[in-house]
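pasting Glutathione peroxidase for the record, 178 residues
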Amino acid sequence: MSIHGFSVTTAEGTAKPLSDYHGRLVLIVNVASKCGFTPQYAGLEALHRATEDRGLDILGFPCNQFGNQEPGTDAEIQEFCSTEYGVTFPIFAKVDVNGPDADPLFTYLRAQAPGDFGPDAGPLYEHIKNSRPEALGTDEVKWNFSKFLVGRDGAVIRRYESTATPEQIRADIEADLD
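structre below
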């Protein structure tokens, strides 16, 4: 199994098979417009522009499961991303990433890369420990802007927690592009 067996829903409501990304490196990110990590959109867009021609696709999936930080409609989210950050990579329909209604793609991603979330995440760890202690020690996505790097074959390579910026993970991505 790989991500290529899944389809996702575009912001316009149509199905998009992830098999369309076969042969390309993919960075899947759960995003939000009203989060302390929202400025990562700028870094993600810069990364997208610098590496798209070399085989990287960034896919954004809005999620409102963390602090009600993505309350808008799909159309409002598209407008925000375009206007505020000049985002040109695809932002798909809003999804749940955890729980019984989690999008199957994220259930798969979490199982393939459970994460390594601990005290080294600093203030985010303290926040999760105090607000969602049941999430610690699980494969759940802990917060917005978690990132999953997927290889050209559709297999999950690595998970990056919200605190890892696009600039910090760029070297890993560059290594996988070469």
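The chain has a mean pLDDT of 94.
The radius of gyration is 15 Å.
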